[in-house]
Hints:
Oligomer: single chain
Distance between the termini: 58 Å
Radius of gyration: 26 Å
Low-confidence stretches: none
CATH class of the largest domain: Mainly Alpha
Number of domains: 3
Order of helices and strands: EHEHEHHEHEHEHHEHHHHHHHH
Amino acid sequence: MAVAKTNPLALVCGDDDFAVKARARQIFQQWSAELGGMDHETIEASVSNGGEALTVLGKLREALQTLPFFGGGKVVWLRDCNFLGEDRTASSAAVTEALAELAEELKTFSWQTVRLLISAGRVDKRKVFFKTLDKIGTVENFSAWSQDDKDWADRAEIAAGDALRKRQKAISEAALGELISRAGANARQLENEVEKLCVFVGDREKIELADVAAICARNKTAKAFALGDALGDRDLPRLLKRLDEELWETKFDTDKSEIGLLYGLIGKVRAMLLLKEMLREGWLKETRDYSQFKAQLERVPADKLPADKKFNPLALNPYVLYKALPQVKKYTSAELVRAMDVLLRCNQRLVSSGLDKAMVLQQALVQIVTPGAAA
């Protein structure tokens, strides 16, 4: 994607920090090559208070007004700007006024020999400065992938495919699915894992599932999937080991909790229940071919499934469903319904009792996995 040569003003923004930086760097290099010369400037615009923001805006004005020393053109990059959003610094009266004044100046600025690139995080689209850039320049917004987005896995697959093609590598369907499952909705980690894979396979062109299993790390979400996989496989020793690992990480990671682990397990059992129903309805058939499985998913009547993403199996990563398909045979429908009841009561005990949370979770998982265990 190239920025139109006739538009010398560009804003690249969004909460996908990795994509914003990569795209801004691409534009800066493209513009610098087109204009030539040695006078291009980069102004660091990550600030901690309003005074620093005003200083940065002063440097920007100076850079725009300073003609290239050797003639020709000049690119000015306001990099990593963090005062265009809604935080305290961006909302201060002095910064708001200074940005409004700069917006007016940009409307009448002579762009014949100068191009301005601004890269930023999330911006406030209601403010005059953004509206001006949107009107007279080019704005590109990059939203971070989220597990809540139905198409995050598709976007990740496209990004991984592009990154691999740039490195002249190919990847099998199963390996791609496992790569996405491990990296999760994290563009930066996905890029890192692709780089690791390409170094790992060396001169070999095609990346296989064994390569991903050998070298790729699991992010937080993928580790939660590993806990669910052990539950789906009905493998009690592995399940308790994974649980211990996850419980240990809750001591150091504020984003993790026993309740969060429980909700992940509830999601796993719910997905298995829905998969069992999809098999019963004939919408899916057992297959060891990942491509065939994805083709089956595309033919599932969407109007027959819940609209809420939390209850819709098609909102999950297709590879996660593919791995769960053989696990469904390890449980009867009655056992899965009973498992949901066990997890519900586990939730109640975690919230309302003073019992040891690890023990409560362990007891629930033993009841689910052990055939004939008392509920």
